[in-house]
């Protein structure tokens, strides 16, 4: 069985933030909620690298393990989804998640959290596919249409890969073989040396 | 003393309810969900789209 | 004779078998190792490998970046929002998950069940502490109205907070199999809101309680004697005590002061994520909050038992404010003597519901 995965090639990501924009636009994610974000390491220094991070759809997801109301579930091909009708906004998944994927719209004063929102791998949620309810709660369901997540599909440098783990790792392996395994044979070091 | 015996019996009975507890805390199994039905999550749906998504990845993600 | 010969032969066989096994094991380790050492000319292998590895790392700048990311060092992100973080990988989450789903839920559950079982055992085998000389029919004021209101306010909110809090911690194992997901989610949603709003009120009440009762709870030498005599629960003697006995002082200092302040402070920080708390902070506060609350609830079982079922004539002090004189003499003799010395006059008890009301023309209060 396939296992859906994201992979971001740090050698190719150019920090254009298009994945972030595409995600926000595709799912009409509200202000202050970011399903996907680009993190730049060593910003402004030699060796700067950026990686696009969202929910990584873990096999043994910590969010699902700590959820007090047990609202998470995994699709047969390994996409971690959750039920917003059950979510109580306790914030536990945010504490447990290594990638900072769970987000909460703030609904009222004192930092009271709304229902958790996170990357769905463009697979919607527990509502009828393509229904209004699904779109409002979870965003578009591209997977049901046979499409992969928009962030990866429209990545200009094909840095962000999404799909079955086998396929994605095949593509990435071929890529690494072609450009050579050592980063110094490709990229900044090859062009400018160890400056 | 029947009152005390009843109380103890009640305590034992209510504690024995705990034997109904799940030992396995991580409930989630791939494709198994106890709440509302999600068509996208089922094994059949995943199998149906598997080939389509593979083709999509091979055309969309590779360097053509 | 033949018997001993047979057993000797068997022993010899066994010994030789053991020795040959040991020899095989030693040789199977020593031979390949010796070969490798002979080939590489001794200690060189490891050093060479380390050197090569070191060189690789020195010339691979990317490995440093990934190492930093894995360690949880922050980067830069343009996205903004209350829950947007700039770290690629946060390591505290998995630790917290292991702690919460493992030891906390397991041992927390055992602790509560153990505390309940202990109370049940004490009740079964020691039983209720009776009034040694029956009721005197005269009562004396033990708790002022304000003390009683504060006590019952704290008690009710404590129980509400305990039930909602325990639902969140144990609900998935205990309640979901019984109630189902939808019903439990609705309950947990209400529970979370109630817990968050009742919590601050409870904290204020706990603080007031500390201020109100701290002067009665100063440890005295008589408390040690009280503990030595088993507090009157174990053994026949009735140790003397002031307004608060040794056990009540422990409940005050450990339960209300230490647990109360820890639970209140951690709860406040969890309730208001507005002071720049990181995920690591929140996980830590949650751990403190949960551990302390569980200990407090276990302790509370004892307090509630002693105050109601465990001691005859104790509960009426908190409900009506007045206790029987014989109860006061038996459990808090020093306090009773002080009150009498202060000129407090015991009054005739109100007639029990079955008897006639106002028989001997006692002053109504």
UniProtKB/TrEMBL annotation, chain A:
<dbReference type="Pfam" id="PF13247">
    <property type="entry name" value="Fer4_11"/>
</dbReference>
<dbReference type="GO" id="GO:0009055">
    <property type="term" value="F:electron transfer activity"/>
</dbReference>
<feature type="domain" description="4Fe-4S ferredoxin-type">
    <location>
        <begin position="4"/>
        <end position="34"/>
    </location>
</feature>
<dbReference type="InterPro" id="IPR017900">
    <property type="entry name" value="4Fe4S_Fe_S_CS"/>
</dbReference>
<keyword id="KW-0813">Transport</keyword>
<keyword id="KW-0479">Metal-binding</keyword>
<dbReference type="InterPro" id="IPR017896">
    <property type="entry name" value="4Fe4S_Fe-S-bd"/>
</dbReference>
<keyword id="KW-0408">Iron</keyword>
<keyword id="KW-0249">Electron transport</keyword>
<keyword id="KW-0004">4Fe-4S</keyword>
<dbReference type="InterPro" id="IPR050954">
    <property type="entry name" value="ET_IronSulfur_Cluster-Binding"/>
</dbReference>
<protein>
    <submittedName>
        <fullName>4Fe-4S dicluster domain-containing protein</fullName>
    </submittedName>
</protein>
<keyword id="KW-0411">Iron-sulfur</keyword>
<feature type="domain" description="4Fe-4S ferredoxin-type">
    <location>
        <begin position="78"/>
        <end position="107"/>
    </location>
</feature>
<dbReference type="GO" id="GO:0046872">
    <property type="term" value="F:metal ion binding"/>
</dbReference>
UniProtKB/TrEMBL annotation, chain B:
<keyword id="KW-0732">Signal</keyword>
<feature type="region of interest" description="Disordered">
    <location>
        <begin position="36"/>
        <end position="64"/>
    </location>
</feature>
<feature type="signal peptide">
    <location>
        <begin position="1"/>
        <end position="20"/>
    </location>
</feature>
<protein>
    <recommendedName>
        <fullName>Lipoprotein</fullName>
    </recommendedName>
</protein>
Automatic annotation (TrEMBL), chain C:
<dbReference type="GO" id="GO:0009055">
    <property type="term" value="F:electron transfer activity"/>
</dbReference>
<dbReference type="GO" id="GO:0008863">
    <property type="term" value="F:formate dehydrogenase (NAD+) activity"/>
</dbReference>
<dbReference type="InterPro" id="IPR006471">
    <property type="entry name" value="Formate_DH_gsu"/>
</dbReference>
<dbReference type="GO" id="GO:0009061">
    <property type="term" value="P:anaerobic respiration"/>
</dbReference>
<dbReference type="GO" id="GO:0015944">
    <property type="term" value="P:formate oxidation"/>
</dbReference>
<feature type="transmembrane region" description="Helical">
    <location>
        <begin position="282"/>
        <end position="301"/>
    </location>
</feature>
<dbReference type="GO" id="GO:0009326">
    <property type="term" value="C:formate dehydrogenase complex"/>
</dbReference>
<feature type="region of interest" description="Disordered">
    <location>
        <begin position="46"/>
        <end position="69"/>
    </location>
</feature>
<dbReference type="InterPro" id="IPR016174">
    <property type="entry name" value="Di-haem_cyt_TM"/>
</dbReference>
<feature type="transmembrane region" description="Helical">
    <location>
        <begin position="250"/>
        <end position="270"/>
    </location>
</feature>
<dbReference type="GO" id="GO:0046872">
    <property type="term" value="F:metal ion binding"/>
</dbReference>
<keyword id="KW-0479">Metal-binding</keyword>
<feature type="domain" description="Cytochrome b561 bacterial/Ni-hydrogenase">
    <location>
        <begin position="142"/>
        <end position="321"/>
    </location>
</feature>
<dbReference type="GO" id="GO:0036397">
    <property type="term" value="F:formate dehydrogenase (quinone) activity"/>
</dbReference>
<dbReference type="InterPro" id="IPR051817">
    <property type="entry name" value="FDH_cytochrome_b556_subunit"/>
</dbReference>
């Amino acid at each position: 069985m396939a296992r859906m995965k994201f992979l971001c090639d740090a050698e190719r990501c150019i920090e254009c933030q298009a994945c972030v924009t595409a995600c926000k636009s595709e799912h009409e994610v509200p202000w202050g909620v970011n399903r996907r974000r680009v993190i730049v390491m060593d910003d402004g220094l030699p060796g700067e690298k950026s990686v696009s991070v969202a929910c990584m759809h873990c096999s043994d997801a910590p969010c699902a393990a700590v959820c007090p109301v047990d609202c998470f579930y995994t699709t047969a091909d390994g996409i971690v989804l959750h039920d917003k009708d059950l979510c109580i906004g306790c914030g536990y998944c945010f504490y447990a998640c290594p990638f900072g994927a769970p987000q909460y719209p703030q609904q009222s004063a004192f930092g009271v959290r709304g229902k958790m929102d996170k990357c769905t791998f463009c697979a919607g949620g527990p509502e009828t596919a393509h229904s209004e309810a699904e779109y409002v709660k979870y965003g578009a369901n591209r997977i049901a249409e046979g499409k992969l997540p928009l962030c990866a599909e429209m990545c200009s440098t094909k840095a962000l890969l999404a799909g079955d783990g086998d396929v994605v790792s095949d593509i990435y392996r071929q890529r690494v073989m072609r450009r050579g395994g050592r980063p110094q044979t490709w990229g900044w070091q090859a062009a400018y040396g160890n400056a | 003393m029947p009152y005390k015996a009843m109380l103890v019996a009640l305590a034992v009975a209510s504690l024995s309810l705990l034997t109904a507890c799940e030992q396995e805390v991580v409930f989630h199994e791939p494709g198994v969900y106890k709440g509302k039905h999600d068509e996208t999550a089922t094994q059949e749906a995943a199998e149906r789209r598997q080939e389509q998504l593979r083709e999509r990845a091979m055309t969309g993600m590779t360097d053509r | 004779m033949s018997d001993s010969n047979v057993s000797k032969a068997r022993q010899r066989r066994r010994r030789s078998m053991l020795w040959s096994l040991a020899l095989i094991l030693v040789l199977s380790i020593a031979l390949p190792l010796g070969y490798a050492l002979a080939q590489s000319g001794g200690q060189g292998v490891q050093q060479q490998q380390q050197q090569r590895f070191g060189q690789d790392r020195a010339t691979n700048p990317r490995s440093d970046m990934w190492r930093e990311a894995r360690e949880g060092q922050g980067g830069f992100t343009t996205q903004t929002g209350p829950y947007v973080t700039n770290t690629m990988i946060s390591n505290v989450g998995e630790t917290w998950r292991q702690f919460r789903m493992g030891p906390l839920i397991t041992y927390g559950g055992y602790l509560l069940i153990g505390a309940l079982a202990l109370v049940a055992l004490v009740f079964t085998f020691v039983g209720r502490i009776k009034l040694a000389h029956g009721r005197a029919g005269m009562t004396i004021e033990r708790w002022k109205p304000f003390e009683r209101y504060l006590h019952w306010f704290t008690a009710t909110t404590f129980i509400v907070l305990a039930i909602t809090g325990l639902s969140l911690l144990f609900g998935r194992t205990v309640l979901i199999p019984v109630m189902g997901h939808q019903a439990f989610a609705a309950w947990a949603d209400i529970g979370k809101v109630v817990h968050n709003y009742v919590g601050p009120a409870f904290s204020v009440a706990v603080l007031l309680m500390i201020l109100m009762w701290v002067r009665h709870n100063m440890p005295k030498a008589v408390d040690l004697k009280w503990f030595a005599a088993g507090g009157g629960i174990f053994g026949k003697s009735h140790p003397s005590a002031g307004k608060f006995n040794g056990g009540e002082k422990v409940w005050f200092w450990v339960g209300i002061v230490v647990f109360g302040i820890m639970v209140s402070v951690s709860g406040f920080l969890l309730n208001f994520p507005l002071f720049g708390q990181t995920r690591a902070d929140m996980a830590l506060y949650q751990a403190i909050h949960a551990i302390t609350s569980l200990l407090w609830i276990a302790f509370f079982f004892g307090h509630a038992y002693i105050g109601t079922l465990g001691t005859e004539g104790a509960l009426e002090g908190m409900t009506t404010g007045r206790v029987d004189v014989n109860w006061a003499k038996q459990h808090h003799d020093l306090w009773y003597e002080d009150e009498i010395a202060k000129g407090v006059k015991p009054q005739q008890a109100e007639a029990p519901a079955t008897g006639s009301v106002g028989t001997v023309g006692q002053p109504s209060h």
